[in-house]
Amino acid sequence: MTGEGAREPGVPSVLVVEDEDHLAAGLKLNLELEGYAVELAGTARAAGELLLDAGRFDAIVLDVMLPDLDGFSLCARLRRAGNYTPVIMLTARASAEDRVRGLEAGADDYLVKPFDLNELLARVRSVLRRQAWNLRNGRPVRRGVTIGEGSVDFESHEVLVRGEAVKLTRLELDLLRFFVEHPGKVISRDTLLEEVWKLRNYSTARTVDNFISRLRRHFERDAQEPQHFLSVRGAGYKFVP
Ligand code: CA
Asked: How far is 216 from 74, CA to CA, in rounded Å?
């Protein structure tokens, strides 16, 4: 699965989970025309496999009526696993009870079939915009943030990488949080030592480098070709969400 579906930087990536082929194909085409990279899954199981890779998608369009598992359950499982990718649910049901159920399962938005295509596209744009804004402002989306191959909940300290729980030390979490709060900025090793290590004894620029290597091993698809924890020659590091 690696390699295939590797993300292009700057191109939002959307997963469409829908078992009606013609509808899935139509959504894919129209989302691609909007400039997104789109992948399709026809079952909850196929979606679940793609979603083990927590950072792979920026938004999910999720049909409620799937052949194997309903969309509510899939969404709830995703959230329990620490994956906070925005979800827009699609359903043929229109009762308020179902809308509430969808939102309680952790969906971000809800659309009743048959829906207007332009409305769906507008809602996808809206969740992507909100997500980008949250990341830019260092506000974890519903507590959790997705970083490359993993996701981090800074409140519970739960870290999942490729679907597996990973233990990070307090300092690793502090460093990660500092990066998430300062996306896109070049940060010197000295600043990191001051702000994260707070000048603990024995920490040097070398210490910072070692920690960055560890974060890369956890979160980067390829630690040799980092996409998120970038070295800026002669200046320090830059985190790219
Ligand atoms: Ca369906």
From this structure: 29
How close is the Cα of 50 to the center of ligand 1, in Å? 18
Query: Whole-number mean pLDDT of the chain?
Result: 86
Q: How far is the CA of 218 from the centre of ligand 1 (A)?
A: 36
Distance set, CA 183 to CA 45, 136, 179, 239 (Å): 33, 6, 6, 5
Query: How close is the Cα of 237 to the center of ligand 1, in Å?
Result: 45
Q: Domain extents for the chain?
A: 13-137, 145-239
Residue 34: pLDDT band with limits 50, 70, 90 = very high
Which pLDDT value is given to residue 4?
47
C-alpha 68 to ligand 1 mean position (Å):
10
pLDDT tens column, 180-204: 888 888 999 989 988 888 766 667 8
- Choices 1.10.10.10, 3.30.1330.60, 3.60.60.10, 1.10.10.650: CATH for 145-239: 1.10.10.10
Q: Tell me, what DSSP letter sits at residue 219?
A: H
Return the CATH superfamily for domain 13-137: Response regulator (3.40.50.2300)
Q: Output the CA 70–ligand 1 centroid distance in Å.
A: 9
Distances in Å between the alpha carbon of 59 and those of 92, 150, 166, 212?
A: 20, 15, 24, 28
Question: Per the omega criterion (within 30 degrees of 0), is the bond before 114 cis?
Answer: yes
| Cα of 21 from ligand 1 centre, angstroms | 9
Could you give the percent of the chain with pLDDT greater than 70? 90
Q: How far is the CA of 20 from the centre of ligand 1 (A)?
A: 6
Give this prediction's pTM: 0.57
pLDDT tens by residue, 104-157: 788 888 898 889 999 999 999 999 988 777 777 765 444 568 888 888 887 778
